[in-house]
Amino acid sequence: MAAISKQAGGIPVKVQWTREDDMAFDYYRPGGFHSLKAAVDDAGKLSAWQDHFITFTTDGKEPVRSGNLSPTEFPANVLTNQRMLQSMIDSRIPTGPWRAPGSNAIAFAVQSFLHECAVAANRDYLEFLLDVMGEPRFTVAENLRALHTGRAANVIRTVAEKASWGREMPRGRALGLAFHFSHAGHFAEVADVSVDANKKVKVHKVWVAADIGPVVNLSGAENQCQGSVVDALSTAMGLKITFENGRVEQSNFHQYPLVRIDKAPEVEVHFVESPYPPTGCGEPAFPPAGPAIANAIYTATGQRIRTLPFSAEGYTL
Hints:
single chain
């Protein structure tokens, strides 16, 4: 813009990309693959965890931006028997932050697989997840921004209560639960989802329970959570960029389907206030929504979704 302004005689200029240019030449959310293994003991409790994350690199030294797996990612940070691995594949696609950077995709893989573990152990996911948390404690001593298992358990219990978890649901309709900790926020969500014989999905309602410390602006915080859930629904169901011969194949929203207002679910938000320093909520309500919906789809249909977006498995809104 500075160069254009100079050529125009030093006057202010406005540079605006078309939607087509934006989609073809912008930065993209990094992809990746998780190879997950776990064990449950005789009591049906998670006893071991391994996550080998295959990400991308542009320089051969560091993972692409927002494409790094932390060695303290939940549930590794609450287990003694755990192993976290990371490999990198060369890439030339420019990547950058997406709402809840990194966490938006990691939560889907982790919470979906933890749900698989609960099913394998023949346990209700609510009880299984609370067992994983164990006794209330910070996972990093004296770090007020670290995961606190007691705060996590509180939001999980709260969202389950608000959604009447465990109630009988009609055929083809189910509740799905997920939890994620990111950006110092503890968030649990339950999605009420129905699926018909043609894999058409209806997300009727999503409950959100959050602990971000004292809430300063209640209506603003609530709106951020609602927007995050709708944003996450778009991402989970249909947002995908593909490349052919080095060029982006999508050009506008007819090929990159954002959720329209008639598909947006009701979102009910509850804050569990705590005495810890307040943190933001513009991002951490995003990550749990996708896996909550996916876990509901599994319960309703028996089909496990292991990739994003769900449209790759034939599901539509």
